[in-house]
Write a structure and sequence with these properties.
Blueprint: H1 2-18, H2 23-62, H3 68-72, H4 75-82, H5 85-97, H6 102-136, H7 146-170, H8 174-182, H9 185-191, H10 193-207, E1 216-219, E2 224-231, E3 236-240, E4 245-248, H11 250-255, E5 259-260, H12 262-267, E6 270-278, H13 288-295, H14 301-317, H15 333-346, E7 358-361, E8 369-377, H16 382-399, H17 413-424
Antiparallel strand pairs: 1-2, 1-5, 2-3, 3-4, 6-8, 7-8
Helix pairs in contact: 1-2, 2-4, 2-5, 4-6, 5-6, 6-7
Length: 425
């Protein structure tokens, strides 16, 4: 090989002299012309071998049953590794072309080594990305900050690679260069402050199971209300319900407060906590006619009978004079209505009966008596949840007159007009 290369150099030198170029200039150009020929040949070999290697590896991995090798040995990953063919050939040929020229060999070797290192860095970066995609498709790793780990690994890779490239160009040991950089560690920490804080915050978010892609979070301070689409080293992307994107630094999610709705989805029930105001003037004791009417309501039949029996025994045992309403115990239309709502919710097919169901009175106000319904829907989907909630209160508003109750509502313009017309008539 050495004899062939030197023969080519000699032939190029003689050709240049025969073309009228003086001997001194020919001696300077001949080796560089041969270097250009070697580079051209190396690139041709690369152009031929790289597709062959990529296709051969692709055929092998497609025949396997597993899917991870299809991602790891992707055409981009294998192709980037195959790009090492040309620079390695050139690197090996340089000492043969420039015999007895140590300085020239050293300088060209450095340039060639820089290209080799850059190619290796690109290959390793693509390999890290491929490994990220492999683990990101596994359910067990969905709640881990894989994107942040991937970006951190790539930052460290290119940082170390940059140190090696600089040390190669300067002809110094990389460890000596790193030792010198340690003196400026404070400056480096300031430059990479967001990266370091984001990485640590990503680990905390994952370790404490606080956040993962697909979670619904709300953070009013930063106008975030939607699904987490991506957790990266420096940002957490949230697609809001209006389809806008909010980006939040990970360390703010650790230092500030945010609400994660994923626990609600995992529980299988979504809470309804809503009240309706009842006009206090419509509350009254039940008459025998009212009790007879309520007995015919399927959901109230057992309750009315059992409660009436308990009240009758109590009044008899205590010799209560029933001719006066304030004596003894009596049922009210509001109490029966509350029992009706409780039974209604406990038998409703769209309510999650394994979770708390309660109907309670809140503190009376100037706007009436708030009757609060507290229950969980069996479906956590937003649209279904709103439909169940609306159907329940539609029914409540429509059924209240059957119990002699009225909904409290501030007077409107129509009420004042009706009052004025009645006075005129």
């Amino acid at each position: 090989m050495v004899y062939i290369v030197q023969s080519i150099v000699k032939w190029v030198n003689e050709t240049l002299v025969s073309m009228g170029i003086n001997q001194g200039t020919a001696d300077l150009l001949d080796q560089y012309i041969v270097l250009g020929l070697v580079i051209g040949i190396a690139l041709c070999i690369d152009a031929v071998c790289r597709p062959f290697i990529v296709n051969m590896v692709h055929k092998v991995v497609t025949k396997t049953k597993v899917t991870w090798d299809d991602i790891i040995f992707d055409k981009k990953v294998v192709g980037s590794a195959a790009r090492l063919i040309a620079p390695i050939i050139i690197y090996m040929m340089i000492p043969i072309i420039f015999r007895h020229q140590e300085d020239t060999i050293r300088y060209i070797h450095r340039l060639c080594m820089v290209y080799i290192i850059a190619t290796v860095l690109r290959f390793l970066s693509l390999l890290i990305t491929a490994i990220y995609h492999v683990y990101n498709e596994k359910e067990a790793y969905r709640n881990h900050p894989l994107k942040g780990i991937q970006q951190t690994a790539q930052v460290l890779l290119f940082f170390i690679g940059g140190i090696i490239i600089i040390s190669t160009l300067l002809g110094k040991n990389p460890t000596a260069l790193l030792t010198g950089l340690s003196a400026s560690a404070a400056i480096l920490m300031l430059v990479f402050k967001d990266t370091i804080m984001g990485f640590v915050s990503g680990i905390l978010l994952s370790t404490n199971n606080m956040l993962k892609p697909g979670d619904w979070i709300t953070m009013p301070k930063y106008n975030a209300d939607g699904m987490v689409t991506e957790v990266t080293l420096n940002t957490v992307k949230v697609q809001n319900w209006d389809k806008t994107i909010t980006t939040i630094p990970p360390y703010l999610l650790v230092s500030d407060s945010f609400q994660n709705w994923q626990g609600m989805f995992d529980s299988g029930g979504r809470r309804v906590k809503r009240s309706i105001n009842i006009d206090m003037n419509s509350v009254k004791f039940c008459t025998p006619e009212m009790l007879e009417k309520y007995r015919k309501i399927h959901l109230l039949q057992d309750y009315v009978e059992e409660t009436e029996e308990v009240i009758r025994r109590y009044n008899e045992e205590n010799n209560i004079d029933n001719s006066i309403l304030v004596n003894g115990r009596r049922q009210t239309n509001l109490g029966i209505f509350r029992s009706y709502l409780t039974t209604y919710l406990k038998t409703h097919p769209a309510v999650n009966h394994s979770m708390m169901t309660m109907v309670r009175q809140l503190q009376p106000t100037g706007e009436g008596i708030p009757m609060e319904l507290y229950f969980f829907t069996a479906n956590t989907a937003w649209v279904v949840y709103e439909g169940v909630q609306a159907d329940a209160f539609d029914h409540i508003l429509a059924i209240m007159p059957e119990f002699g109750l009225r909904v409290f509502q501030n007077p409107s313009g129509a009420d004042f007009r009706a009052l004025t017309c009645n006075k005129e008539n």
